[in-house]
Amino acid sequence: MKISIASYAFHGLLAAGMMDVFGYLESVKYRYHLDAADIWNGMLPSTDEEYIRKVREAMDEKEMCLANLCVDGAHLWDADPNERERLHQNALGHLHAAVILGAQTVRIDMGIREETMSGEQLDFLAGRYREYAQFAADHGFRVGTENHWGASRHWTHQERVIRAVDHP
User: How far apart are CA 100 and CA 44, in angstroms?
Assistant: First the structure.
């Protein structure tokens, strides 16, 4: 059986200063006896390579794999092009972290807060997700959408994006 516990489940302890990603890994391995992690990027204060390598070392010591890296704060769409670029750079940092961590999957939200999606938004999302999907494929993992808010919560919009991306 393949099971992991999302580190987001411990976000209350993180906010209280009672847990960090290393405590999460210890808990998952030795309290819950699991070999797979599901890291929410809120547990990662940095995507700096040196820090990410320390996280990977902690996983390797415990013989753990990373089932998923869940990335908040890097959603694709924002009405402001400058903000979109900032979010894109954050996403790229996390995609590189995913490579180091050996992630099997990465999830990034669409970012559309409205309940509907315009043609411009669809075109932008398709291009950006296609770029991320190719990066992921080149590095042995997969990228997918999340469904935090707005249009992403509706399967019809998710399906439109998937079809437009048209990437394995």
Answer: 13
DSSP 24-72: HHHIIIIIS--SEEEEEGGG-S---HHHHHHHHHHHHHTT-EEEEEEE-
**Higher model confidence: residue 48 or residue 148?**
48
The number of angstroms, rounded, from the C-alpha of 24 to the middle of its chain's C-alpha atoms is 17
Of 102, 107, 6, the residue nearest 56 (C-alpha): 102
Distance in Å from the first CA to the final CA of the chain: 25
How far apart, in whole angstroms, are the C-alpha atoms of residue 27 and residue 24? 5
Residue 1 above 70 pLDDT? no
* CA–CA gap between residue 96 and residue 150 (Å, rounded): 27
Report the mean per-residue pLDDT for the chain.
Answer: 96
- Residue-wise pLDDT for 73-84, tens only, equals 999 999 999 999
DSSP assigned state of 149:
S
Q: What does the DSSP 8-state code read for residue 151?
A: G
